[in-house]
Amino acid sequence: MIKNIHKNTTQIVKNTTQIVKNSNLLNRSSATAPLEAISSVETQEQKSFRKRLKEAKIDPKTLEYIKISRACRDFSDNRNKINVYHQDFLERTLNKMHFKFAAAASYQSSLLPDDATEIAFAGRSNCGKSSILNSVIGKAGMARVSDKPGKTQTINFFQSANSKLKIIDLPGYGFAFSSPEKIYQWNELTKFYLENRKSLKRVFVLIDCKVLLKKLDNELMDMLDKTNCRYQVVLSKCDGIWATELAQRATLVKESVSQRKNIVFPILFTSLSE
């Protein structure tokens, strides 16, 4: 039984399987504005967001998909249980490919050869990326899970037994418990990888559904739009949000990214069990 599971890895696995078949740093303000002024700005932003969320339309198909996937608070009774259908699907697809850890690249010279289909997972630090990777790969603990941002500091390669597919764990971007020099180093390595990897067929961009899109997420998608790589948004940590509100949050994200060049729809949802 896989622990630390995202309940809706099924659709991600389906997308990944089909692809195989078809073969900057966190900006810290130096401003010294009074605490009252900062609090006021945050309050206005929160009010603006709540207003947009309230006015966001609910797509019936999205709502239906959320309920079928059970990736929402409505099904929080199953938060610590793996859905039998998802487990069976994983065991019949990617889990049967017997992934193993292949390499951890800290420099361009340590990247594995660009010789097989690659699927990458990217997201802000502490967005739940490692847990979903463990679910897709089928081995608990393969990707390091932590509540401290910045545990993934290298580009980690997991390779299938037949060497035809690699799943890539990219370092999280944003705040991390590490030195500025190290953060800069792994951000530059990630940028080089995304801009130059010819075998990269899809990037799953994980977005915390409670936070939604931030500047760094948009910067990542700006970079991906300049490449030939397709990418897909995955809203993570959905178990704390009711289905109707989750559908509204998905609407806000879709409206923000609908005109992007290389994005793939639909938006996917995952629910993290800790």
Word description of this protein:
The protein has 274 residues and is α/β, with parallel strands linked by helices. The chain has eight helices and seven strands. The protein has helices spanning 10-21, 35-55, 60-69, 84-92, 129-137, 180-196, 215-225, 243-257, and strands at 100-105, 117-123, 155-159, 165-169, 200-208, 230-236, 263-269. It has a seven-stranded mixed beta sheet with strand order 1-3-4-2-5-6-7, with helices on both faces. Strand 5 (200-208), helix 7 and strand 6 (230-236) form a beta-alpha-beta unit. Helix 2 (35-55) packs across helix 8 and helix 3 (60-69) crosses helix 8 (243-257). The longest helix is centred in the N-terminal third of the chain and has 21 residues, at 35-55. The two termini are 14 Å apart.
- Structure summary, number of beta strands: 7
Major beta sheet, strand line-up = 1-3-4-2-5-6-7
| Terminus-to-terminus distance | 14 Å
Tell me the strand percentage band: 15-25%
The SS-based structural class is alpha/beta
Shape: globular
- Based on CA atoms alone, the radius of gyration comes out at 19 Å
Mean pLDDT: 77
Tally of helical runs: 8
Low-pLDDT segments, ≥5 res: 1-7, 24-40, 78-90, 145-150
Largest sheet: 7 strands, mixed
- Kindly state the percentage of residues in helix: 25-40%
Order of helices and strands: HHHHEEHEEHEHEHE
List the helices and strands and how they pair.
Elements: H1 10-21, H2 35-55, H3 60-69, H4 84-92, E1 100-105, E2 117-123, H5 129-137, E3 155-159, E4 165-169, H6 180-196, E5 200-208, H7 215-225, E6 230-236, H8 243-257, E7 263-269
Parallel strand pairs: 2-4, 2-5, 5-6, 6-7
Antiparallel strand pairs: 1-3, 3-4
